[in-house]
User: What shape does this take?
Amino acid sequence: MFFQFSGKVALVTGGSSGMGRATAIAYAKEGIKVVVADRNVQGGEETVSLVKANGGEAIFIQCDVSKEDQVENLVKKTIEAYGRLDYAFNNAGIPAPQIEFVDFDAETYDKISDVDLKGYWLCMKYEISQMLSQGGGVIVNTASVVGIRGGRRGAPYVAFKHGVVGLSKSAALEYALQNIRVNCVCPGEIDTAMNPLADAPPGAVEAVPMHRFGTPEDIAPAVLFLCCDGASYITGQNLVVDGGQSCGI
Ligand SMILES: NC(=O)c1ccc[n+]([C@@H]2O[C@H](COP(=O)([O-])OP(=O)(O)OC[C@H]3O[C@@H](n4cnc5c(N)ncnc54)[C@H](O)[C@@H]3O)[C@@H](O)[C@H]2O)c1
Assistant: This one.
């Protein structure tokens, strides 16, 4: 039974929208109890309603992942609600302005770093502590195709997504013997609020070998695969979901 998820508990950050919402719904359809976390309350409550409309179970906890006390509280409240934490999908993120390297200022750099790098480290720190205390767990972090190659414009975002890959590999090494697996999903162009297809520049769709942007529902199955027992020998890896775009020109 590779995909036996019933009775498990998952935490999803950035669960108010996009890939986080789609993954929360996908987890719940497999019988997983879901904690939806986000700084956006309205979106988070909508995700919980959608989970329940699909017959699943979920709660929403407001959390800004860049704030240590809020992340600590998130994991504490998850355990109070459901008693354990089997899967964590760390996914909350913000984009960088699409400007040249030399045009970024230090304030913008720090603001993006707080969410897109420190936020991942904080979540992993408290999730891993809980997973150590209960004998294991699985973490999936949303990096990006620009977490494993460069990108023109938005250099700090590119750097922090490489950082997410680095945090994941280090944690995978450190906790391999404690039954904790840590992997990344690396999306390409996905049509979400962060990267709407409607705003795509000319040629962006044709640049994807499949000639379409992905959807949040293209990402959720990759996350569930990395969580499942069938992936029990996979840790410290990047699963690219990009319609073939990173294969070459
Ligand atoms: N859309 C793409 O093309 C694409 C490609 C590669 C990677 N990503 C990454 O995928 C992840 C999900 O993004 P998405 O495309 O679904 O966008 P989205 O905007 O739909 O979702 C991002 C969510 O993160 C939440 N969030 C932002 N800052 C937060 C904070 N400080 N604390 C808590 N929640 C916060 C937002 O409220 C939102 O609900 C992000 O990490 C993003 O960088 C997106």
The chain is about 40% helix and 15% strand. The mean pLDDT is 97. The CA atoms of residues 29 and 233 lie 25 Å apart. Residues 9-244 form a domain with the Rossmann fold fold (CATH 3.40.50.720).
